[in-house]
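FIELD: query
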Amino acid sequence: MTAPQNPDRVGGSDSGPAADRPALPRLLNVARWLWIAAALLGLVRAYVQLSDRKQLSTDLRAALPDLSQTQLDDEINGLIMFNLLYLLALLALYISLTTRMTQGKNWARVVLTVFGGFGAFGTLGTLLLMSQLGQAELMRLTQVRVDPSDLVFGALVTAVEVAALVLMFLPESNRFFREFKRPRPPQPYVAPGGDPFAR
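FIELD: result
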């Protein structure tokens, strides 16, 4: 009969080397799902945008007026495929990083913090440029069409990521990562017969 699993402990069962590991804080687990939710929101938004082939055709025609219709269709198909693969890879990366984070890997928390910081500054910069230059001038300078809905969506994703960032650095979360840094006492060797001192 196997030992019962403790869902509040990272690493599994109540016996063995993992038994003395710190319990995973509930708020840190919430942060993990917020990061995954932010990545999923980006995937859904991209799918909605990329499904509008008419708008994609208009934007590409304005940027590349010399393309034939066949070439334009190939460019659109390539753009859709590239963006979907990129966002799926990003989702997989976020799942991997957040899993490592809940296993006490502080480097994963640092990488997520960098991602969140870049995302927040990017959204803030776009909002400032939009308010100063206007949509038409911003598109002329960057060749990228930014709709008000894009800004609202970007602000929503940023808010989710900032919430995750805050939860990752609360005292309870910091204590969890400090516990993982502490050296663990050596575990006695347990022979198949059950005698911890047998060799």
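FIELD: remark
The CA atoms of residues 130 and 138 lie 7 Å apart.
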